[in-house]
Amino acid sequence: xxxxxxxxxxxxxxxxxxxxxxxxxxxxxxxxxxxxxxxxxxxxxxxxxxxxxxxxxxxxxxxxxxxxxxxxxxxxxxxxxxxxxxxxxxxxxxxxxxxxxxxxxxxxxxxxxxxxxxxxxxxxxxxxxxxxxxxxxxxxxxxxxxxxxxxxxxxxxxxxxxxxxxxxxxxxxxxxxxxxxxxxxxxxxxxxxxxxxxxxxxxxxxxxxxxxxxxxxxxxxxxxxxxxxxxxxxxxxxxxxxxxxxxxxxxxxxxxxxxxxxxxxxxxxxxxxxxxxxxxxxxxxxxxxxxxxxxxxxxxxxxxxxxxxxxxxxxxxxxxxxxxxxxxxxxxxxxxxxxxxxxxxxxxxxxxxxxxxxxxxxxxxxxxxxxxxxxxxxxxxxxxxxxxxxxxxxxxxxxxxxxxxxxxxxxxxxxxxxxxxxxxxxxxxxxxxxxxxxxxxxxxxxxxxxxxxxxxxxxxxxxxxxxxxxxxxxxxxxxxxxxxxxxxxxxxxxxxxxxxxxxxxxxxxxxxxxxxxxxxxxxxxxxxxxxxxxxxxxxxxxxxxxxxxxxxxxxxxxxxxxxxxxxxxxxxxxxxxxxxxxxxxxxxxxxxxxxxxxxxxxxxxxxxxxxxxxxxxxxxxxxxxxxxxxxxxxxxxxxxxxxxxxxxxxxxxxxxxxxxxxxxxxxxxxxxxxxxxxxxxxxxxxxxxxxxxxxxxxxxxxxxxxxxxxxxxxxxxxxxxxxxxxxxxxxxxxxxxxxx
Length: 740
Known about the structure:
Elements: H1 13-34, H2 43-70, E1 75-76, E2 82-86, H3 88-115, H4 119-122, H5 127-136, H6 138-147, H7 151-170, H8 175-179, H9 188-202, H10 207-217, H11 223-226, E3 232-233, E4 239-240, H12 244-258, E5 275-279, E6 282-290, E7 298-304, E8 307-314, E9 317-325, E10 328-334, E11 340-343, E12 352-362, E13 365-374, E14 385-388, H13 409-417, E15 424-430, E16 435-440, E17 460-462, E18 466-469, H14 492-502, H15 507-511, H16 520-526, H17 534-541, H18 554-568, H19 591-600, H20 613-632, H21 641-644, H22 661-664, E19 685-694, E20 699-703, H23 721-725, E21 730-731
Parallel strand pairs: 2-7
Antiparallel strand pairs: 1-2, 3-4, 5-6, 5-18, 6-19, 7-8, 8-9, 9-10, 10-15, 11-14, 12-13, 15-16, 16-17, 19-20, 20-21
């Protein structure tokens, strides 16, 4: 594996147990003394912590015994990476055992989040999320998806579930003892629920609602959502520009002000930051997701019927999402592809099949939800139906798993074109020197009611030496002439990656790049209005253009941008029933155009409620400075970025175990990067994996945040945290005895 770097968090089970006992004892002594004056600490809190410690010990002991008994050929290296060997079903049964060991509780949370049963474990605070999941009907449609799977895919899901359940029968994750609950059996439907959870994170089916609203304000402006308009970065890293976007955006802002729309602000854009690129046959991929403890993705290796594969899985879903074999390497990023459309009442698929009221209860909280589901999707309050690929057979299946058996980029593109998954950019390289970009997952064909883009219509680019994807519009058209992406994200990361590749920077350096050029135009906009606050103005003026932990002034720019953007686009928010379920997309790709409009200060385009743009900017500056001073104190202007941008990697149960947080959470250290840098970062969000691979040389280097073990007493619990923070990678090679 090579040098692992600092090891102050990589503790042996014995060392961690001793520290746990000593620190807990010391904490209890201090707390007992404090409780003489302050009775906040209760007997039940002590019992909960004692229960947690005992359950951790039991799980650590029982898990090792269970793996030896159930999967004697499974090998787990010192980083916690499982390696399995055998037939397809044997491998996935063994990896079911391994992921139940490392992510058993996290897998349960993911399926419950989608099924609308999370409140049964976590209580009243998640009731609203469960109500939304019930209205969408994930669990109902998941059963239909499983019933339609081809037999060989169903066999994989069943083998995986068998491994999960066999492990759980012998070792119960320690979290259940704290909650006083027991895990339910895993099934094929649960794996589909995990896939739907990914779908929900990576796609938004309501793009049409924003398109309709823009057309209502200015005919033709809906093109802002689903055409390649504005400055973007093509797959080869070159800049493309279409000034029509800025003109259209001016028109809709003027129309929104004229009608004095008092729409709710568009929702905060979901964090996005996945990057992937190819130079020759070397492929780099860093998938940015909401992070967790243990890690959101799990690294694994296998030899499946003689074919060796190394890569990353989403626990609960038996598919290598990114990885390498002897012949092929592949990686993916979010596409923002078209996955949904609204069907009018009476259209095919709109007949109601479920119509019932449900009552959800957790603690003292109760929520009532009306569940109305049609053949094609949930019934909205106006009687229309939202068709969404995440809910229909074919929209989710295990076709991406076929990449393991592909030997060339041509075969990989063919497999991707018929796969069912959240639509993603897929980059592939092969050992023959080939490279390609294509779309993996299906795309809705507009106006078809039930159709998808046929395999022959799925775009692909083959043989290009440099390929870059970073969630922006890739400037590739569909057969209907529209862009393959629907309201994609800003192009700054893609341009920065392309610039770095032209400069010859190595992949790990590019992956860790924290240049924040995205905010430079906005600094020019804000600086004149910061003059009444000299200390703030000085900090922002001296900002070095990066999201380094020592950068000054960036926290003001980030907050000011969020405030002004939200107010500026508030009048464009769709007023449609789809917002009851998903909210609306948010014109994220047009940020540069918006900065130009704000800088021009045309009062006709200023949002309703403000006389002009200077009025809004002065108001935003007062709001931001007061807020940050309240949060950070009088020294807010001199506060470095790392003091406000923290790692934020916490175990879901750490609020219930405050005196054990040091053992189950990762250290809350300063974090470089921001949501608009290549190394996209925010509290609890970042690169869930980094990978550099080349099928010609056999290179496969990786890192991930912290560890991928759910056992705090295991050596792999924090194994790679220092290396990941420093932007380093380790070679992922199979251990002896793994069959490779």
